[in-house]
Each structure stands twice: as C-alpha cells, then as structure tokens.
Amino acid sequence: MRDRQSETQAIVHDRQTKAIAEYIAGAENVVSELGITIEIGSDFDFFCSIPKLQPERHPVSPIFDPDEAFIADPNGFWLIGRDAAGEIVLTQAIKLIPVGDAGFLTHLTENLADYRPKGDRLDISKSRIVLTDRAASLSGDLCYYGELWIKRTYRGSCLTAVMPRLMFAIAIAKWSPNVVFGVMEPLAACKGLAAREGFMHLEQGGLHWWDRVASETMEEWLVWTTRDDFVFNMRVSPQMLAQLYPSKTDKRPAKVSKVA
C-alpha cells in the first residue's frame, strides 16, 4: 500500500512540475510579446540601485536590501524587464523565509522591522500585527514577494496579473514553499490588486505601522496564497490573463536571459 501511495504521489508531483514549467514558459511568451526582455538575478546591490534611476520610486524595502538583511542567491532573486531600448520597465523580487514550526505570527513579531517601508519614520515597538488564526499558524518555508513596479507606459497591460504569478511559479519550482505572502496598501487591495496578482487570502488591517513623525498609524494589508492555491489558479493561463487586457504597446520579439 505504501509503495502504491508513493508511486501515486510521484506521478502527481511530476505532473505538477511539468504544469508549472509550462506555466512559466507561457508567462514568458506573454511578456515577450509586449517587447520586454526578462532578466533574473540575485545581485541585490544592483537591484537596490535601480530606483536611483527612477526618481518617482521609493527605495527598495529593507528585506531586499543586503545592507540590512541577508539576501543572495540561496534565499532570494529578482526579476527585471527591459524594453527594446534597454530601459528597465518593470521590477519585482522574492525571498525565501524559513518559518519552521514557530508559526507566521511569531516570525512577524520577532522580525517586523524587516518588513517595514524604507526609512526611520516608523516606531516598530508601537506597531501592531493583527492576523486571522489561520494566517498566524502558517508554518514551514514561506516566500515574501514585493517590489513590483511597472513603468506607466505598460500599466494598462496584463503585466500586473502575469508578472507576480510568473514569480510565484519560479519560486515554487525553485523552493516549493508552502506559502507566498506580501503586503499592500488598503486602497490598492480594494481596487483588485490582490486578485490580479493571484493572492487568494487577504488579512485586512494586518499591519499597523506607527509613524512617529505624524503621530498616527499607517495601515497595510497582508496578502497570501498557498502552493496548492497557486496550482489551482494555474487553470487561468497567462494567455487567458493577457486576453483580459488589450495591449496598448507594439508587439516585438524578445528573449529571456539569466544573469548572475
């Protein structure tokens, strides 16, 4: 009986691995049709330098900044996209967070400063975490996703839906985490960003940052999705997502490359 169960599990795993690989290829094709070349890497010093060339952007958050937290090839990678002229038109990053049996709430409580926005306005000791019981008890290997930025020229396209899911798929293929999570502004979540990015669960009012300068709370919502959620959502292919967003840009062939 055990051998049969093991054989069945192996078959399911192989099918999922193949399906995820096909999903990644499909997402890359959608992006290339928008004339964007994808680069994947783990040099976070370079990644942190990108916003300096884009004045409208905030600095990279501490959790992805190697000067503030350990992040390199073993536990993190970024993805950027360049247009035909070589300009960076999109960014995103992801980091492996081994929570173990301690639970997600314990991890956040002990490492809350890592998830703060960049700067020294916030008083972590006066900030609060409010999670549902299910979210609080998440355990094992988790991934934190963030730094999604898309140049205004492309914001009417399908990239907001396709890029996060591409990142999730790569992370699942690489690390097989139990959960991918992130944070976002309440208004963005209410406008549908959580759904577009592929998150299945929303912790409204999850993070309450105390702004010592303004003497008020700045609220962010926590979003998350399990590996099984993502596999379920792969029924909606990148091509199907692209059809929801009529392209406003010329289609040009592009390639996908990896950089160290």
Give a concise summary.
By secondary structure, the protein is α+β, with helices and mostly antiparallel strands. It is built from nine helices and nine strands.
What does this structure look like?
With 260 residues, this protein is of the alpha+beta class. It has one domain (2-258): Gcn5-related N-acetyltransferase (GNAT) (Aminopeptidase), CATH 3.40.630. The chain has helices spanning 2-33, 44-49, 104-111, 133-136, 159-175, 186-190, 193-197, 227-233, 238-243, and strands spanning 37-41, 76-82, 88-100, 122-129, 140-150, 179-184, 201-211, 216-226, 256-258. Helix 1 packs antiparallel against helix 5. The model is unreliable at 7-12 and 249-260 (pLDDT under 50).
